[in-house]
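In the previous chapter we treated chains in isolation. Here, by contrast, the input contains two separate entities that must be folded as one system, with a combined length of 645 residues.
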Amino acid sequence: MTVKTEGIIKIDKELCTGCRRCTGVCPVDAIEGEKGQPQTINVERCVLCGQCVQICSAYASAFDEDIAPREQKMEERNMLPSVKEPLFASYYTGHAPTVKKVLVNNSLFTMVQCAPAVRVAIAEEFGMPLGSLTPGKMAAALKKLGFNRVYDTNFTADLTIMEEGNELIKRVTEGGVLPMFTSCCPAWVKFIEQDYPELIPHLSSCKSPQQMAGALFKTYGAQVDGVDAAKVYSVSVMPCVCKKFECERPEMKDSGYRDVDVAITTRELAQLIKDAGIDFNGLPEEEFDKPLGTYTGAGTIFGATGGVMEAALRTAYELITKQEIPDVNLKLVRGVEGVRTADVKVGDLTLKVAVVAGLKNVIPVLEAIKAGKADFHFIEVMTCPVGCVSGGGQPKVLIPDEQANAYTNRTCNTYVHDENMEYRKSHNNPEIKKIYEKFLVEDNIHHLLHTKYTPRR
Amino acid sequence: MNTFVVANPNKCIGCKACEIACAVAHLGTSVATAGFIDAPFSPRISLVRAEMVTMPIQCRQCDDAPCANACPVAAIVNQDNKIVVKPELCIGCKTCIVACPFGAIDVVPRCQNGKEQMQMSLNVITKEGKENKEVMVAHKCDLCAGRLGGPACVEVCPGDAFTLVKPEVINDSIKNKRLSSALDIIGK
């Protein structure tokens, strides 16, 4: 199967100084070149995490001679002409101009989703303190931009928990392949497909929340609004560069159309908001639209490392024991260490779980599994250093010390948001209950919400 | 003696992190992310990349500062152990640029609170008409005056290539050299 990875992340030869700091953060050693010379990306190896984009400090200076004009570079990068920020050597090709065009196309019905980590970072691009929590302003900005429906990836994060939780229970009770791996992170999925294809059966068959949302927008979402699914244009806003790759995977068209038409990053959404002249900081807060924008605290903690695990455990505990979980804050799976393990008592069962942040940290775990030396039931893996809040599509923090603060604050406010939600367990989300009653049945659950993976070796 | 910052070309990896840290430290407003920057970076340190060498160049804070001696309006002064440009006095004549043996001085638009300052009456005549000209001033390393952590370039460098040379560093170095000279002379 061919999937286009070429051209998503690139290194500008005219700007790269060959300092090779990016090679220190690349989890798959995909950046090649001599010291002092422009680097290139091995597109087969690259998992599109975008950490090279975050660390790159080789910018286009006014003193750089013999380089293409800024306008030309911005066009090559598919950026809005109004963008004023400096250009760096390592970059991803954008989609903001595509979204801008779609928003003025009256023949389309636009639906947008926003990943959990976007709401704790986007305000940074407007000068607010690092990690500011602004879901209401973000929803308001999306409405002002002209999206017909402002939905939320957090809803499908809750849905992922329902599906993945049930899959885990089934694998544990019926002797399925264990440990089960989470499948929300597309860079991690690509890594397994190319480096450990023999472990593909361990991956949960659940699509990522982005792709579940895409599949529902053009089915259930179109039904709710009584619009022709062919007219629905589905946009996602992600803290992640690899989501651009995931939405272009050829199999991701189970709604009958491309499920997610285009994925933009947190930075690109900020650029669109500025381009439209919207005063983000001054916006009054608004709600996400129902039904596909209703979410619980469990959905929002997907943005932090350990969040998917914690959300899954909250639900699995109650589904298995039929009792309320004693403490909804499962702090034993939170933290910043690259690998965290815990034994969680769920009724008579002790679930052995592991949480991995930073793709390089997963290799010893995978080797242990292959050697039969790891008896975990469930493992969460996120490619970026502390999960999606530190994703490659998040605002680029210029000073390293401040980057550490940004990650801490974004994580902290993710949990603050969870604590202040009316519902904190995915199975309590009223719209989740409703979609299982009204729309999802055994046939379309499998078709719309689950997927298969491709060995790439 | 003046304090100065100097980089070791053998340690410099050419990443330009010092230029960014410098530009951000002098913005006068708190800016954390690239997306919040709406003007080109204007660093007071400049990475040189040539076949033989990669290293940042910045002001040496010369004790007999040729830039200050050449300035026709005395806009460059020695203050708190460093050479400082007083932008309110500078007339943008560029004499200091010529005088500086290191290439450490630029002339850039003067900004206050992130806004470019305009001339009182000097206009630029263009085909479309005339418009106020921006105020241009000499621009050089001020050792991040007023910054708590000291010079931002030193702090941010991933290669640890910078040395903050304070008078005591020079004095100690001279003393040590004198001692070893004396020891050499008596043959020990």
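The first strand of chain B starts at residue 4 and ends at 7. The CA atoms of residues 84 and 142 of chain B lie 6 Å apart. Compare these points with the single-chain example from earlier in the chapter.
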